[in-house]
Amino acid sequence: MASVPPPSATWLYRPNRFVSLPAELDPDTYDTSPEKRRAEAERLAIRSRLKRQYLLQLNNPSPPAVIEDPALIRWAYAKSQNVYPTFRPTPKTSFLGAAYALGPLLFWIFVLKNDRDCKEKRIQEGKYKRPFSVF
């Protein structure tokens, strides 16, 4: 009698709705198109060239004063100088901008107007004597 081979791991594995699919069994990970593999290989080549260039500068016996990392320069530029191309005006940002711009102004107008009205009321009631001041 011939023995039956044991079932494979892929046959035994059944996805659970509570657990995500492991990367090893995800078709997006191992079943890529030739274009996607070519793009990944190109990105890997660019990264390795940049890494080699940086390591050559780092391990140079007579190094320059500043070792420039192009990726770090791009990141710093995108973080600090290039703010507005990524800004999207939405109702929330418009409201927050108006609140931060007009909020303090309206607050101080209310406080000073209220103080002036209270002082005027006390003057009319005779409970407050205005001090004489030239300035």
UniProtKB/TrEMBL annotation:
Organism ancestry: Eukaryota, Metazoa, Chordata, Craniata, Vertebrata
Keyword Aminoacyl-tRNA synthetase part of the UniProt annotation: no
TM annotation in the entry: 94-112
Keyword Mitochondrion: yes
Membership in a protein family: Belongs to the complex I NDUFB4 subunit family.
Species in which this protein is naturally found: Toxostoma redivivum (California thrasher)
Cited function: Accessory subunit of the mitochondrial membrane respiratory chain NADH dehydrogenase (Complex I), that is believed not to be involved in catalysis. Complex I functions in the transfer of electrons from NADH to the respiratory chain. The immediate electron acceptor for the enzyme is believed to be ubiquinone.
GO cellular component, one term: mitochondrial inner membrane
Subunit: Complex I is composed of 45 different subunits.
Entry membrane topology: Single-pass membrane protein
Superkingdom: Eukaryota
Full protein name: NADH dehydrogenase [ubiquinone] 1 beta subcomplex subunit 4
InterPro entries the record matches: NADH_UbQ_OxRdtase_NDUFB4_su (IPR009866)
Keywords: Electron transport, Membrane, Mitochondrion, Mitochondrion inner membrane, Respiratory chain, Transmembrane, Transmembrane helix, Transport
Compartments reported by the entry: Mitochondrion inner membrane
